[in-house]
Design goal:
CATH topology of one domain: Rossmann fold
Strand content: 25-35%
Helix content: 25-40%
């Protein structure tokens, strides 16, 4: 079953006197359980696509269905509800609250969803356990390494049990060894059935995905299956 169905997406931005055509008639399907890497140079359209898939932006034309629900015409509140219910986000810079514990950072989506504190606490701890970080639940980001901070961010993305994780350069702020640890974790989550769409400019990171899509000038110029890295040694 297709989790994402995008048809003829068009998106343009005006920059001064110029019109930048970020997406030009882009169509693709992403099935449940896929692990997709999206690549391309700066300005190729990959980040614009990610923002549209994440219901953070709207296309100028075309249609987008997420789990069968047409989303491009929904209002802001409805889009926010879909983001909180169906999508987990992982960012390059972690986006953690600096004076807040790991557990409280993971709980944030549940706060927005109106979940009561006892259930929030239990679900946050379970998500931290899933990324092998439950023993650091009371630590603030300053007390965690970069890799541990990204694990907290992944736990936060998982806590609402989304159908899709969107990861934007998830290893961009990490050293090589820590990057591999994060990719093993994402690969392990995918092996458990989680759908992951990841933007990266690094070929060795994209190699962990099962499918690679390459953008150039707002168009898809490559879309192919690949044999992924199989070193999935970190428990999720």
């Amino acid at each position: 079953m297709a989790l994402i169905e995008a048809r003829s997406l068009v998106k343009a931005y005006r920059m001064g006197d110029q019109v930048v055509r970020a997406l030009q008639d882009v169509s693709l399907d992403i099935a449940e359980g896929e692990f997709v890497a999206i690549m391309g140079a700066s300005g190729s359209g990959k980040s614009t696509l990610m923002n549209i898939l994440g219901c953070l932006d709207r296309p100028d034309a075309g249609t987008l269905r997420l789990a069968g629900e047409e989303v491009e015409s929904l209002d802001g509140d409805a889009l926010a509800a879909i983001r909180n219910r169906r999508i987990g986000f992982v960012f390059q810079q972690f986006n953690l609250l600096p004076r807040t514990s790991a557990r409280d950072n993971v709980e944030l989506p549940l706060v927005y969803a109106g979940v009561k504190p006892p259930e929030r606490h239990a679900r946050a701890l379970a998500a931290l356990q899933r990324v092998s970080l439950s023993e650091r639940a009371s630590h603030t980001p300053a007390e965690l390494s970069g890799g541990q901070q990204q694990r907290v961010a992944i736990a936060r993305a998982l806590v609402n049990q989304p159908s899709l994780i969107l990861a934007d350069e998830p290893t961009g702020a990490l050293d090589t060894q820590t990057s591999m640890e994060i990719m093993r974790l994402l690969a392990a989550l995918n092996a458990q059935g989680m759908t992951i769409v990841m933007v990266t400019h690094e070929s060795d990171i994209a190699a962990w995905a099962r499918r690679r899509i390459v953008f150039r000038d707002g168009h898809i110029v490559e879309d192919r299956a690949q044999q992924p890295q199989t070193d999935v040694t970190v428990s999720a």
